Amino acid sequence: MSLHSADSPLLRSESPTVDPLSLQTATDPLPDTDGVLQRHAPRRVRLVLIEDDADLSFVFQAILEQEGFEVMTAASGETGVAATIRTLPAAVLTDLGLPRMDGIAVARHLDGVQETRHIPRIALTGRVQDRIGETAELFRSVLLKPVSREELLTAVRSATDA
Questions:
Q1: Is residue 117 in some structural domain?
Q2: Which residues have C-beta within 8 Å of that of residue 9, sequence separation ≥ 6?
Q3: HEC string of 36-92?
Q4: Is residue 64, in this structure, part of any structural domain at all?
Q5: pLDDT in tens, 88-128
Q6: What is the tally of structural domains in the chain?
Q7: How many Cβ atoms are within 10 Å of 124's Cβ, its own excluded?
Q8: Residue 72, CA atoms < 13 Å, CB-side half-sphere
Q9: Which of the two residues, 21 and 130, has the higher pLDDT score?
Q10: Is the residue at 40 inside a domain?
Q11: How does DSSP classify residue 26?
Q12: Residue 14 domain-assigned?
């Protein structure tokens, strides 16, 4: 039996019919009609999140993506710096207590690169003492973990003008 013949199971009336438009999801891009939609569609704001705690990274990423941000995650300072240089995000969120290259070293490294020194940085820390000192000059804001959803979104929106 051929799939193209009238006896094909794909062509029988009892086979379910599928409307191709119903297959689109909310995240599917809309087709561009001579550039009209692209001019009016909101641009997703890209962020780099550097957090070595996988559970926290997942939660922060979920919150930010739910609000329409595009989030690239990195589990180490080195990977986060590379992602930042490669993608030039609107802002960088980094844990201060990262192993090897900590958040302060990340910020200093980004300050030393012409293309990334202007990118706002948000520090994430579990230690109250990290809220003062060096962090004031290197970060737009310092968030003390556990961070509330509202606190996270306020800091990111302020840093990105989103």
A1: yes
A2: 15
A3: HHHHHCCCCCEEEEECCCHHHHHHHHHHHHHCCCEEEEECCHHHHHHHHHHHCCCEE
A4: yes
A5: 999 999 999 999 999 999 999 999 999 999 999 999 999 87
A6: 1
A7: 27
A8: 20
A9: 130
A10: no
A11: T
A12: no
- Show the domain range for 140: 46-160
Q: Does the pLDDT value for residue 15 go beyond 60?
A: no
Contact 155, 143 (CB under 8 A): yes
- Summarize the confidence of residues 74-93 as an average pLDDT: 98
- Residue 149 pLDDT grade (very low, low, confident, very high; cuts 50, 70, 90): very high
Provide the 3-class DSSP secondary structure of residue 157. helix
Token pair of 84, please?
């930042």
- For residue 159, CA distances in Å to 19, 48, 118, 139 come to 42, 13, 11, 10
- Indicate the pTM of the whole model: 0.73
pLDDT confidence of 43, banded at 50, 70, 90? Answer: low
Q: For residue 90, give the nearest of 36, 154, 30, 156 by alpha carbon.
A: 156
